[in-house]
Amino acid sequence: GFAELDTDRRRRTGVPEVVYGEGKTPEQTLRLLAELRRTDPRGPALATRCPPAVLDAARDAFPGEAVAADPVGRTVTVGALPPPVGDVVALTAGTTDLPVAGECRATLAALGVGVRLVADVGVAGLHRLLGHLDAIRDADAVVVAAGMDGALPSVVAGLVPAPVIGVPTSVGYGVAAGGLATAAAMLASCSPGLVVVNVDNGFGAAVHAAKIVHRVRGDR
Amino acid sequence: GFAELDTDRRRRTGVPEVVYGEGKTPEQTLRLLAELRRTDPRGPALATRCPPAVLDAARDAFPGEAVAADPVGRTVTVGALPPPVGDVVALTAGTTDLPVAGECRATLAALGVGVRLVADVGVAGLHRLLGHLDAIRDADAVVVAAGMDGALPSVVAGLVPAPVIGVPTSVGYGVAAGGLATAAAMLASCSPGLVVVNVDNGFGAAVHAAKIVHRVRGDR
Amino acid sequence: GFAELDTDRRRRTGVPEVVYGEGKTPEQTLRLLAELRRTDPRGPALATRCPPAVLDAARDAFPGEAVAADPVGRTVTVGALPPPVGDVVALTAGTTDLPVAGECRATLAALGVGVRLVADVGVAGLHRLLGHLDAIRDADAVVVAAGMDGALPSVVAGLVPAPVIGVPTSVGYGVAAGGLATAAAMLASCSPGLVVVNVDNGFGAAVHAAKIVHRVRGDR
Amino acid sequence: GFAELDTDRRRRTGVPEVVYGEGKTPEQTLRLLAELRRTDPRGPALATRCPPAVLDAARDAFPGEAVAADPVGRTVTVGALPPPVGDVVALTAGTTDLPVAGECRATLAALGVGVRLVADVGVAGLHRLLGHLDAIRDADAVVVAAGMDGALPSVVAGLVPAPVIGVPTSVGYGVAAGGLATAAAMLASCSPGLVVVNVDNGFGAAVHAAKIVHRVRGDR
Amino acid sequence: GFAELDTDRRRRTGVPEVVYGEGKTPEQTLRLLAELRRTDPRGPALATRCPPAVLDAARDAFPGEAVAADPVGRTVTVGALPPPVGDVVALTAGTTDLPVAGECRATLAALGVGVRLVADVGVAGLHRLLGHLDAIRDADAVVVAAGMDGALPSVVAGLVPAPVIGVPTSVGYGVAAGGLATAAAMLASCSPGLVVVNVDNGFGAAVHAAKIVHRVRGDR
Amino acid sequence: GFAELDTDRRRRTGVPEVVYGEGKTPEQTLRLLAELRRTDPRGPALATRCPPAVLDAARDAFPGEAVAADPVGRTVTVGALPPPVGDVVALTAGTTDLPVAGECRATLAALGVGVRLVADVGVAGLHRLLGHLDAIRDADAVVVAAGMDGALPSVVAGLVPAPVIGVPTSVGYGVAAGGLATAAAMLASCSPGLVVVNVDNGFGAAVHAAKIVHRVRGDR
Amino acid sequence: GFAELDTDRRRRTGVPEVVYGEGKTPEQTLRLLAELRRTDPRGPALATRCPPAVLDAARDAFPGEAVAADPVGRTVTVGALPPPVGDVVALTAGTTDLPVAGECRATLAALGVGVRLVADVGVAGLHRLLGHLDAIRDADAVVVAAGMDGALPSVVAGLVPAPVIGVPTSVGYGVAAGGLATAAAMLASCSPGLVVVNVDNGFGAAVHAAKIVHRVRGDR
Amino acid sequence: GFAELDTDRRRRTGVPEVVYGEGKTPEQTLRLLAELRRTDPRGPALATRCPPAVLDAARDAFPGEAVAADPVGRTVTVGALPPPVGDVVALTAGTTDLPVAGECRATLAALGVGVRLVADVGVAGLHRLLGHLDAIRDADAVVVAAGMDGALPSVVAGLVPAPVIGVPTSVGYGVAAGGLATAAAMLASCSPGLVVVNVDNGFGAAVHAAKIVHRVRGDR
Ligand SMILES: Nc1ncnc2c1ncn2[C@@H]1O[C@H](COP(=O)(O)O)[C@@H](O)[C@H]1O
Ligand SMILES: Nc1ncnc2c1ncn2[C@@H]1O[C@H](COP(=O)(O)O)[C@@H](O)[C@H]1O
Ligand SMILES: Nc1ncnc2c1ncn2[C@@H]1O[C@H](COP(=O)(O)O)[C@@H](O)[C@H]1O
Ligand SMILES: Nc1ncnc2c1ncn2[C@@H]1O[C@H](COP(=O)(O)O)[C@@H](O)[C@H]1O
Ligand SMILES: [Mg+2]
Ligand SMILES: [Mg+2]
Ligand SMILES: [Mg+2]
Ligand SMILES: [Mg+2]
Ligand SMILES: [Mg+2]
Ligand SMILES: [Mg+2]
Ligand SMILES: [Mg+2]
Ligand SMILES: [Mg+2]
């Protein structure tokens, strides 16, 4: 009654329905995870933005299943992870952007996409990014999470041939509180081809990156 | 003196420097086009957001060159277009979004990427989109330009496996004037994986799509 | 002293005064409900946006009365519901929009208007809406609650002859936090005739729908 | 090529496709008017937001047709107006809101709905509205166009049983420039059931009113 | 050390320094009240925006003094109130605007100005205001607190010769959350001469009204 | 037809109806001036925000009348000015705020209120204001027009017992473009009792000041 | 793993890396302080925006070190303070701006720069500032923290030859809530040469002032 | 009458009064330039934001004087430039930011401060900046003008010990139109010590830099 899961989504788009845990009771989220698990056996069921109650209850709720609960990224995965294909790099500008990158990483893992995480390489200390450049260059896609000035994705997009996805984070205060100024800075980037998702939307960045990997690997 | 062209950009990112015609005198734009043409013979030189004076003068300014000037998309290309590879579909929600799609199409053409344009299929008459769905589904990437409510990219992203790039346009008035509400609607999409560029930025959407095509075709 | 109830409102507008529970003490809300009940015996007394303390105390406060308290929609109704006339359909884009649809449903019930609720049919999985279309088409009015991109009311308004009322919800984060971007997307709809109420205002949408039903049924 | 008219819209929604003249060349608008006229003979073809060039050329472009061009409301109608049914009242708060009411009136006329216009009855001189109240009360719907504080629709919605549609106008300066503050004031109305359309959107208000009239008259 | 009270303010402006209780520790507020009481014996000391801890402790902190603590308006007054002169009327649109009117009333009382409070006469039920009009007309000044659409001050300013001061309140939600839309509506009023203070600033409205009374009574 | 002048306004509020010239044709403005002149012989007729065409035509349109047209303040007055009573001081922060002060001065003159203008005394050179302080102190009311930071009214309100009305102007650029930041700064003033009108609304400030003068002089 | 400290920053910019305590666990902050202390023995390690848990634990976490924890400014310093050079004055407009000035003072102390604090000298009582002017005039730089109207830095910048840095604070409510209006007022200052940092960013203002002192003293 | 020049400003702040040409008639600007020239013979008179009419007329208006008119930066200087002292570097991210840097350069020149201009070194091609780094490092101050994402000042502030002043420019479109998003990005910089002036305010950045040079050189 309360929900009508889009169980056909994987067929249409290559990416399955995912439970959005915010604004749901823990019971609702766990019930929807179970329903996803039942109706789509091709991959694990995923819930994002899980409150602590869901993170804590997940393992007991699915006895006999592989369950992964990430308290930083606030995700729960039920079912074995597929073997990873493709190569996505997830960068963060600061330490406090890690939860957003965590949501991105867990989503990619659930979708069966390989992901490498490089944290805390913001533009205030540019040499940190430059030291990782060779590793970034050949990725299928690069996800860059940054708060405050949102400058890191612009710098990265000017340096590598991989498609770059900026994720503005709500890390920041004053004019950057809430992440809108950060999102605007990324949208207004002077580096051609940078694309942007909603503030803190590590999930959406992961899905776009996965769709690119699907295209590159010819999966769909 | 007045400019320091980034002639190394194609080597780093796979996409060459492009002249941004807004806020420049016609003389500046034409001079920079000439310099690009001279320093990077691997592809045509491109200028976007050209005022009428540049569109009118371009052909005479480059005698003996293949010159394309598009008054709708406001682009000028100097040099022969490369043979197109890959398959990008550019959709518009309305007739008045065509200039943005035009900028996107000219950019893809200059980058040697194949592009198909489907106009005026906004959600107020949904059957128009559904009639084109088979043609869209297998594209390497889909660019969707829409103004006002910005709903079309969300609907498309829920229907196809291709990566979808939303381009909010400044078409609209009242709360949508300037395109910011439209951009916000796209960023807040309930369809996973939709990514967004700046308002009216057909150019940026094209560059991201080209980078995806480069990855898919293994060019870089 | 602290309030001057508009007990004449039903005579003037066909819709009685309703207690707005936010920012009032539980005692104030219960006292005003009692006063409404006393001064207007033609229908039940309604309070919206009730805090838990009012929801919990309502039944005991009105012994011998039919009292309905809805913890999801946060409404309290005191007095028997009138037999429903007319046919309003309330749609939600997602599960988390249910509280807003609940406020709408309780208000229509208190006003004696028939209402059918269809939940979780957002545009990310369009087939869900299309499957319900025949049931929606002939309604006297359609209320559509949606958060995030607010695209669902635009799609509905392009498909049915019934007047459509969009209710932006505060469901969403980042650029959609608070519901203003969602409201703007609905106001800027490319589907003609879509009208909009304030964010989360299921109550206002219900009153407008009831006024339409009154006109259609010739009640006033 | 440049447009894909939604010629099926009248069948689906009771209201035909209409040409939006802004951002189109005069040639495009006139060609689309001709196409609408040809494909939908059940009623006149309508274009809104017409630039002077369209208003001037319309009569000559459709020889032998009844053509109405309204320079205040900026509309063009091609084909005989249907006999009006129903009763909609359009109010304006000030003289300068007349263009918006004009767009509303022309749209209703083209849709075959009866409309009465009452101008310049804003709340700074409340007696002006009160003097017209009897005439407003029994309308099928009331459209109220107001700029600046946008207070008039709230006052009207508290006085009559008819459904009230507020149209914020861009009349005003300073904090009201562009009409957004006015729109917000209407959305935040303390009068239950007031619904709102985009700034200056007399067209959309008319379509909603017409859909109500269709319901009341049982046309669809 | 932590504060440099403006003990000269009454001499310069006719209105003494007042303690702003927000963001101060209870100890700081009480110490500043004591210092004001000591340095300016011509009238009571006033603190606004007092947290519960200050409201509770005030009476014990000033033994032998007349102390008034208002939990609704969140004010504390230390010292006997002067006999009231002049006549200010404070109106509220709704019940939930009472705290703002309370701050205004306490400030006027501390300044020795007479004040009458009329609550809950918003424009959704216009007859409530009209019934009080004769009492309002001859006031020295009228303060009108309203949230949501902020329409009441405009209506009042069009009806009486007294100077009218609008106080937007933060009562409201969605587009009106925080009170900014309400403030904008008042600033954009179509009623000439309406002036506005900050959201919820009952204190500031009172001070302006008191300065008018001082001018009218020739006190300064 | 197109207008319904509020000819009763002077009786109700002490201040007559005034023509708002923006968005009207010159013919409309001149006709309304004539109608005001005819229906209210107790004082001159006033139009504000007049375009050049009205300023130029005014004198010839009213032969035999005293006509004043001010190209800086953009006002036209038809009929002899009443002898001034009361004392209002109008200050400007910069030279470019003069048009707003001009509108204020012309309105006060038409209302029969005495006004003194002191220009260009902004806070960047504070001694300029301090040199005029004695002259300001005893005014019935002080109007302060300022753009950019809007700091001058706060400084004035902290120095004099007269009621102070801030008029934010649209003078400024960047974050101050349009005057909204300036208006916010005045509303958030730390000087108690400062009241604010809309951006560039010299007219509204004048009406409030006149209402104060009426109270002080006991005229009404 | 979770962080990549920029231990080279002092060499490049003259100012070392500092721990930003917001959004970090107490353990992370303390570990990073320890790492800074270890890698950069030339000066104390500093953390800003520390939650109570860090302030409480700091002293025990660094036995044998000089540890300073400031609960008002929310800073922790580990290691002996360098002898202060240079002369920076930090002003606040109100008492409630003290936390921001405290962060500034602690940062300057950690950087070895001399600082004098003058509190509560806002423009509502201008004589308070004027009494301190001689002490301010010769500073190497002046930092001015102000909320609400943000007028104080403009007044200061018009009076002294020292470079002035404005720090908007989030002190204020209504239109000033969050500090954005205050920041805009400072950016739009009519006093030439006023520069601005983010809301509540006492840290950033201190670093800029320290860089000026470094230039003046020839340290770097 | 229309202006009260602050001829004492140089004595108080070290920087003289400057004419702001926007919103003034050419006659007013030229008259004020003449008055500045007459009252302050210690340096040239400067006007900023001059319309073409002032730029064209300046030379003839001051026969026998050294007059410099810069059509790009829109400045006019009357009187011989002082010999430059100190070393300020002005960077621009793009070619279209040159007018802002031009205003900055002309102001510094008029104030007798040495300035070097480095154009078009934005972060999309980072090597361009890195190639100039040695020249920037030892400046007394660095002014960085950038539009769009505003990332360049953050990158610079992380690389050099000089105090860095960011000037957001109005170069950009969509979310960056008007420069507010750019300004926010700079204020939210993750690079400590970056300070910001208003959008396009090359003048203000120059004055702050000059005040630093005065401190460094011990001039005042
Ligand atoms: N973190 C997330 N951010 C945005 N969308 C999400 C997220 N997680 C899941 N979703 C999408 O949100 C939709 C669920 O919304 P609901 O119908 O309210 O359960 C699903 O279709 C998901 O694809
Ligand atoms: N959920 C709601 N949203 C908006 N308005 C409401 C709501 N519930 C009741 N109201 C209206 O708000 C008014 C009550 O305001 P108050 O005087 O503060 O109680 C009533 O006249 C109701 O018609
Ligand atoms: N480009 C500029 N941006 C901001 N302020 C300026 C500019 N040029 C001059 N000013 C200042 O603006 C003030 C002039 O204002 P006004 O009285 O309107 O001429 C002077 O005190 C100048 O110091
Ligand atoms: N409720 C209030 N709203 C605005 N300003 C106030 C209020 N109460 C007191 N004030 C003013 O705020 C100033 C106190 O600021 P502070 O130095 O932070 O205590 C005083 O000078 C008061 O005149
Ligand atoms: Mg870090
Ligand atoms: Mg179309
Ligand atoms: Mg769902
Ligand atoms: Mg009127
Ligand atoms: Mg009420
Ligand atoms: Mg000046
Ligand atoms: Mg104080
Ligand atoms: Mg460039």
Please explain how this structure is put together.
8 copies of one chain form a homooctamer. Chain A contains 9 helices and 9 strands. Chain A is an alpha/beta fold. In chain A, α2 packs across α3. The radius of gyration of chain A is 17 Å and the shape is globular. Chain A starts with 8 loop residues before the first helix and ends with a helix. Chain A has 2 domains: 70 residues; 133 residues, Rossmann fold, CATH 3.40.50. The first copy, chain A, has a 5-stranded parallel sheet with strand order 6-5-7-8-9. Chains in contact: A-B, A-C, A-G, A-H, B-C, B-D, B-H, C-D, C-E, D-E, D-F, E-F, E-G, F-G, F-H, G-H. The complex binds adenosine monophosphate (4 copies) and magnesium ion (8 copies). One magnesium ion binds next to loops of chain D.
Spans of chain A of 5+ residues with little confidence (pLDDT < 50)? none
The radius of gyration over CA of chain A amounts to 17 Å
Please name the CATH topology of the largest domain in chain A.
Rossmann fold
Query: Could you give the order of strands across the largest sheet of chain A?
Result: 6-5-7-8-9
Name the chain pair whose interface involves the most residues.
A-B, 40 and 40 residues
Which molecules other than protein and nucleic acid are bound?
adenosine monophosphate, magnesium ion
